[in-house]
Amino acid sequence: MSVTKTGDWAVARRLLTGAPSKLKAAVGTALRQEAQLLRQEIVQGITKQAPGGEPFKPLSPLTLAAREMKGRGGTKALMVRGDLRNAIAAIVQGDEAFVGVPRKARGKDGKSVVDVAQVQEFGAGPIVIPMTPAMRRFLFALLRQAGEEPSGGSGRGVVVVTIPARPFLRPAFKQFEKGVQKRFLGRVAVLMGLAAGTTPADTGGA
To answer: How, if at all, do strands 89-93 and 96-100 pair?
Structure first.
């Protein structure tokens, strides 16, 4: 049986033989920096509409029309009010880091952002919604706003809604994973003075 070593073992050996307290502090700082780097990757992915380089699916004409009718406008996904993007957080506790949307996050309307995040990340539907006369009038107005001619009777009926997935976490995680071990080890080495270079300062993202 043979064993093959991979990675920078010389640096790893110097780290492990360093002062324990200094090593612990360096690891903590490096962990916070990596957590903030991942948060920034997610935030910028939403801003640029391409998390991890994977473009979002375009918004449907009905969605764009609904935004116009509500006076919001804009063509970017997940950025009507910015609640989802603003809710992305990096929380470090001990030797663990959480990066994503905290359960307690609330939007400007007071509603949970986690539910919105889950629907956008994985999609939802088909959702069958019973139609009321008021809903029918709104739907017809929405279709006209989108340039389509409404059709159908005056009965109550139903409308079936499907929300396509627009992953903003998984593509960012995948991009972040590239070189993460080497990057983290390098940060710790620099912080302990065992390697030349600088480490990016903690940032709050965009």
So the answer is: antiparallel
